[in-house]
Specification:
nine-stranded mixed beta sheet, 18% strand, globular
């Protein structure tokens, strides 16, 4: 089993009859899974602006999936990939755990810059509104736009930035401009230090259903340190894919209606923000329209990502096929001016 880069292998222990080792590994997996922030349908929150909607049941699942992937990136950034809520937390770690959840709380205030309310407000820029279906690319754009202004309200969030790859292509100059273009800038308009980077790549891995030639690629990505998982789902049913076991994906499912929580309390209850029971679905049930997420803390991590991801972009043993996405020098604007925008060919 892989859970976003972490391997939980019980095969050898099973073969050798080491039941204690098997149980220990399974417990560590479940603790790792349960430590993921789980964001689901809610009811009873303040009405979304210009509507009478106090619940996102039936339409907000893709936004919730996107929130979960961004939350995981922020957990890795502020708490580390090895963080586990079942370990003895220091006071500062416990406070940050709750603070990250507050950034996604269901309220219209600026200290929750990634709330459903604020993302829906931004949705007007992509011609979507509350009550409508949001696709993976729509949600990626909402997260990118929310990230651009989040640091104005929560200074800690100036440490990170979100880049959404257009046209299934990462333009390296655009990434460089983004990570060095933070609020703490020099006279040239660029920051002197790297901002940690969250990359979201909307892709389509098939026509009406997932093309199975991409399954080995997805499995390979789940082994990579930088990988955050996939927002997508099955047709009309969004999920956040966080890992895999054999031929099935491990998912966090937002389709569970829970009451809104008052996160203004210092010790608000955490139970409804963590899922205890993993779900799995076959790779072949996955909708081909999805978005891949990556996190690079440093420039060195980004360079490593660019190298390590290459073997997984093209399906093995296929002579003519589109890669999942591409990486190119320069900027998107320059590519369009030259008529050489990123071409997805082998």
């Amino acid at each position: 089993m892989f859970l976003t880069s972490q391997c939980y292998d019980i095969r050898e222990a099973l073969e050798e009859g080491e039941e204690d080792k098997v149980q220990f590994t399974l417990i560590k997996f479940k603790q790792d899974f349960t430590s993921r922030i789980w964001l689901t349908y809610r009811q009873g929150f303040p009405c979304i602006a210009d509507t009478q909607l106090s619940s996102d049941t039936g339409w907000g699942c893709m936004i919730r999936s996107g929130q979960m992937m961004l939350a995981q990136a922020l957990v890795v950034h502020f708490l580390g990939r090895e963080w586990n809520m079942f370990d003895d937390e220091s006071n500062s770690t416990a406070l940050m755990h709750r603070e990250i959840i507050r950034w996604f709380a269901d309220k219209p205030f600026t200290n929750s810059p990634f709330s459903l309310h604020r993302l829906v407000a931004i949705g007007k820029s992509v011609d979507r509104k509350a009550g409508q279906w949001f696709g993976p690319a729509h949600v990626a754009t909402l997260l990118e736009k929310a990230s651009q202004i989040a640091g104005e309200f929560v200074p800690l969030l100036s440490q990170t930035c979100v880049y959404v790859a257009p046209d299934c292509c990462i333009y390296k100059k655009d990434v460089t401009d983004l990570v060095y273009g933070g609020s703490s800038s020099t006279d040239s308009g660029f920051s002197e230090s790297w901002r940690s980077l969250i990359i979201i790549v909307p892709v389509r891995l098939g026509a009406d259903s997932l093309n199975p030639i991409y399954i080995p690629c997805l499995k390979g990505l789940f082994t990579q340190k930088s990988f955050l998982g996939v927002i997508g789902g099955t047709p009309g049913h969004s999920l956040y894919f966080v890992g895999f076991q054999h031929e099935k994906l491990i998912v966090l499912d937002p389709h569970f209606v829970q009451d809104a929580v008052d996160t203004s309390q210092r010790d608000f209850p955490l139970q409804s923000y963590h899922c205890v029971y993993p779900k799995k679905i076959p790779f072949t049930s996955m909708d081909p329209s999805c978005a891949l997420g990556f996190y690079c803390r440093t420039k060195e991590d980004y360079d490593t990502f660019l190298d390590s991801v290459q073997p997984f972009l093209l399906p093995p043993s296929e002579d003519i096929v589109y890669p999942m996405f591409a990486v190119t020098d320069g900027s998107r604007d320059d590519a369009f001016k030259l008529g050489t925008q990123c071409m997805l060919t082998k």
